[in-house]
Amino acid sequence: MATTVQTGSAVHQAERYDNSRVSEALYRLLLYGAVILGGIVFAIPFYWMMRTSVMPTTQVYLFPPEWWPERFEWHHFKTPFAVFPFAKFFLNSTFIAAGSAIGAALSSSVVGFSFARLRFPLRDIMFVVVLATMILPEHVRLVPTYLLFVELDWIGTYRPLIIPNWFAPAFYVFLMRQFFMTIPRELDDSAMIDGCNPIGLFWRIHLPLSLPALGVVLIFMVTAQWNDFLYPLIYIQGVPNYTVALGLRLFEGHMTNNMQALMAASILGVLPTIILFFFAQRHFVQGIVVSGVKG
Amino acid sequence: MASISETQTQKGLASLFGRGGKPMKPSTREAWYGYLLASPWIIGFVVFTVGPMLASLVIGMYRTDFLTETTFVGFRWYQNVLSDSLVRKALINTAIFSFTVVPINTALALLIAVMLNQGIRLQSFWRTVYYLPSVVSGVAVSLLWKWLYQPDIGLLNSILGPMLRPFDIDPPRWIFSTEWALPSLIIMAFWGAGGAMLIYLAGLRGIPTSLYEAAEIDGASSFRRFFAVTLPLLTPTIFFNVVLNIIGSWQVFTQAMVMTRGGPNNATLTMVLHIYNTGFQNFYFGYASAQAWFLFVIVLIFVILALRSASSWVHYERV
Question: In what residue span(s) does the ABC transmembrane type-1 domain sit (chain B) (predicted)?
Fold first, then answer.
């Protein structure tokens, strides 16, 4: 009796095992199908952008659209530079992005260090305020800061786009502070015994150790500034001073019948952030983890 | 209170700073350094945040173009905001955008993250594929989507058209039709779900496998494992992202400005676009300020509601 029951359950189990193997295989199949299909959907816009940029004019406007260029025309990538000073636009964007990023990295690391390591009255309240400003919609200060920059006579310069970032943007302060909190305190003590003051401690110990986090701030800020549209739209005057974003929009107005050149210009416009991403992928991921998960 | 701060000071670095000359009281010395190093943020906070916010309230009481005219109008603009049909249109559009994009993007990002976390081959490749669209944004992407949405020769309708033809339905005219223009901007926003996906993926990796093993021994199915183990442990991350997404989605501007300029027939007029138009196109800076405060209060209400709701669904247990 006992034996039969055992055998029965063993058979049953084997059956179940077989079943689960089949359903497991089916599950993997569905999973890979979904990942691949989703991946194609996410990648197609990029493909369409590239395919358009090299197509001959006679083919681009065909109906129904064709997927593969009958021949590759690379000259569309020259058009933006021939019509507008796009090289200058790239320089301008680079200048704004670099100027903002360096200032943001330095200031937020100093402030982040202060919040992470030094004790002073109101510090914790101030840090709560930092967190609160992170969730502040920034457009509530759009008009008054514009007035401020009018009064300072900064309109038409890059200063309104760069200088505010030198005053420790809240998000980066938060990021740097979280990073500094992970540096062991024993390092501080040994530096202190060598006679460092807090500035020396920051400069000699914490700053060199925080290069990865600084990299994150630089990457985020460069990307944000490169993609920004509203602030350059408000503050920049004169076509030669345009950023890439403004230049693209200007270019669109002149290229309504030249989709290849417009897509070529758009590719060039997003290329720097994509290159930056591939070079700094590890930092990118790490920064997102530090800021997102530990938040 | 005093005794607490004293013990803190002793534990801190301060005791070691007082060297040379007539030593300053260590705690004071450390505090001075603290304020000195925090000063970039303090100055920036006063000059670029608190000051402007208060100034914005005051500017909202004037009829001014900052050049020729400055007339005090009291609370007239603030009253106007509530009855202005364009503001209402912008508010409704932005609310629809926010309330569809935030939940759907969150679900989509979670779904992709969970799929990629099943020990899939070439995981980092797929991660890049899904993440890359969220790296690029701004004008170039808006121009690209404007092209994809082209009703006759765009990518979307070249796929949809043949699919809908048997049913005798014409594909939508996307950004050129009043009904589909706002949904177009919403669908386009799904393309950027990869940003949150990356965060969730990192969060999933942080969940200890021992918890899954325990659940498996208890005979929990994979569905149950997801809803009983994975999701609760991920809620703090989800919450943080949802709050940031709410704020971001209420500030949608570039797509609406570049692709449709708010049209057709104000179908894609968003709050920030309307503020921009009022201030920087029509030069009613006072009214723009009042609208900005209105937007600020609305976003604040939704953020507070989200924070309030946190205790009922965000799982704050240390792993």
Answer: 91-306
With CB atoms and an 8 Å threshold, state whether A229 touches B258: yes
Among A32, A100, A117, A119, which would you mutate to test the B interface (most chain B Cβ atoms within 10 Å of its Cβ)? Answer: A119
Whether residues A226 and B8 touch (CB distance < 8 A) is answered with: no
Of the options 1.10.150.650, 3.40.109.10, 1.10.10.10, 1.10.3720.10, the CATH number for the domain spanning B78-311: 1.10.3720.10
Q: Taking all residues of chain B, what is their mean pLDDT, rounded to a whole number?
A: 83
β-pairing verdict for B70-72 and B62-64:
antiparallel
Q: Is residue A96 within 8 Å of residue A243, measured between CB atoms?
A: yes
Q: Give residue B223's region: left, alpha or beta (phi > 0; psi -120 to 50).
A: alpha
CA dist A229 and A161 (Å) reads: 11
What stretches of chain B show up as alpha helix (H) in DSSP?
Answer: 2-11, 14-17, 26-44, 51-59, 76-83, 85-116, 123-135, 139-148, 155-164, 181-190, 194-205, 209-217, 222-225, 231-250, 254-255, 271-276, 285-313
Residues in chain A, total:
295
Provide mean pLDDT across the span B29-34.
Answer: 85
User: What is the mean pLDDT of the segment spanning B234-256?
Assistant: 89
Of residues B139, B112, B111, the one with CA closest to residue B126: B112
Higher pLDDT, B137 or B11: B137
Q: How many interface pairs between A and B have CB atoms less than 8 angstroms apart?
A: 288
Render pLDDT for A28-54 as a digit per residue (tens, 0 to 9). 889 999 999 999 999 999 999 999 999
**Is the interface score ipTM higher than 0.90?**
no
Are B298 and B65 contacting, i.e. CB atoms less than 8 angstroms apart? no
Substitution target in B136, B163, B243 with the highest count of A β-carbons within 10 Å is B136
Q: Which of A17-26, A113-122, B76-85, B301-310 has the lowest mean pLDDT?
A: A17-26
Q: What is the pLDDT of residues A111-129, one digit of tens each?
A: 999 998 888 888 888 998 9
Confidence of residue B15 (pLDDT cuts 50, 70, 90): very low
Q: Which structural domains are found in chain A, ordered by start?
A: 18-73 (no CATH), 76-290 (1.10.3720.10)
The minimal CB distance from A249 to the residues B136, B145, B258 is found for B258
pLDDT tens digits, one per residue of B279-293: 899 998 889 999 999
Residue B315 clears pLDDT 80, i.e. is over it = no
Which residues of chain B are within 8 Å of residue A274 when distances are taken between CB atoms?
Answer: 132, 135-136
